């Protein structure tokens, strides 16, 4: 590893808002290390990398080099032949991939030994990678939501704490995490860009997955704005509320009759209306546990 003086300003040149990360990340020197000794960050929230974009980046790297160093931690492993040293990437995976495409043998890095990929530092490594990607707008909506979800579920951060770390409002973080409630295939459409973030958020307004999918197909067919989806969802919710109230009223008017039948037959009785426009029709459900109970019920009805 070759030490390089006078280049860069440490993490602050990579992530201006890194003051939210604890422990505090301070200024460090920049070194050159062999590119084949750098391993990807397992906490990297980004999963999708545009091939054409990487090719353009590699051309730029061939011409100008890597202008911002990668952030890594040093890891030592014992082997039969002694101690092996490699570097765990924390931030800068896109630059690393571009450098590999460009055929660079060495890349500039900032080494942070206090961020080894173990224990509490797993969370910090995820935070650093997330912040860098968010600030560069490199993440698609699903990747961003999954990263927030990991900080929330796996590392116990509140939505407010996550929002402070990425310099966004709590509502933005909350809405992003809610996207994870969408069905898998719809999330994949959002990940690939086939579905917009606005349309995805609008679909969350539907509580019923069947209606959600019906509207999703209409969105893919074109011609339905996110505002129209929200309006349709709002109308659907009002109708559901009215239907529930109507069903409750129908059931309440049968309450006394249910009690009388239950007293007579000595078993629970339920009366369900069909919720037809005329309010007529329905069914009676008489519960029994054994054939002996059924015989007693039948005898009571026949007699």
TrEMBL record:
Chain segments carrying region Disordered: 230-253
Keyword match Calcium: no
SMART domains the record matches: ParB (SM00470)
This protein's name: ParB-like N-terminal domain-containing protein
Protein origin, superkingdom: Bacteria
Family: Belongs to the ParB family.
An example Gene Ontology molecular-function term: DNA binding
Coiled coil: none
């Amino acid at each position: 590893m070759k030490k390089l003086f006078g280049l860069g300003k440490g993490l602050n040149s990579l992530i201006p808002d890194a003051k939210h990360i604890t422990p505090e990340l301070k200024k460090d020197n920049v070194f050159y290390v062999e590119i084949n000794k750098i391993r990807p960050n397992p906490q990297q929230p980004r999963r999708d990398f545009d091939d054409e974009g990487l090719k353009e980046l590699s051309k730029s790297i061939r011409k100008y080099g890597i202008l911002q160093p990668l952030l890594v931690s040093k890891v030592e492993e014992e082997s039969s032949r002694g101690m092996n040293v490699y570097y765990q990437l924390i931030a800068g995976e896109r630059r690393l991939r571009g450098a590999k495409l460009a055929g660079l043998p060495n890349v500039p890095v900032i080494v942070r030994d206090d961020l080894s990929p173990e224990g509490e530092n797993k969370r910090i490594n995820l935070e650093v990678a997330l912040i860098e990607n968010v600030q560069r707008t490199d993440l698609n909506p699903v990747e961003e939501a999954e990263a927030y979800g990991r900080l929330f579920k796996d590392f116990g951060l509140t939505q407010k704490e996550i929002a402070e770390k990425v310099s966004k409002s709590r509502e933005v973080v909350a809405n992003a995490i809610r996207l994870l409630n969408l069905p898998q295939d719809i999330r994949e459409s959002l990940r690939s860009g086939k579905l917009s973030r606005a349309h995805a958020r609008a679909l969350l307004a539907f509580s019923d997955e069947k209606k959600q999918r019906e509207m999703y197909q209409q969105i893919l067919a074109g011609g339905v704005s996110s505002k129209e989806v929200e309006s349709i969802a709002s109308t659907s919710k009002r109708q559901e509320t009215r239907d529930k109230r109507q069903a409750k009223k129908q059931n309440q008017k049968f309450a006394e009759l249910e009690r009388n039948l239950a007293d007579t037959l000595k078993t629970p009785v339920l009366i369900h209306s069909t919720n037809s426009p005329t309010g007529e029709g329905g069914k009676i459900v008489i519960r029994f546990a054994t054939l002996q109970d059924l015989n007693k019920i039948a005898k009571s009805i026949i007699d």
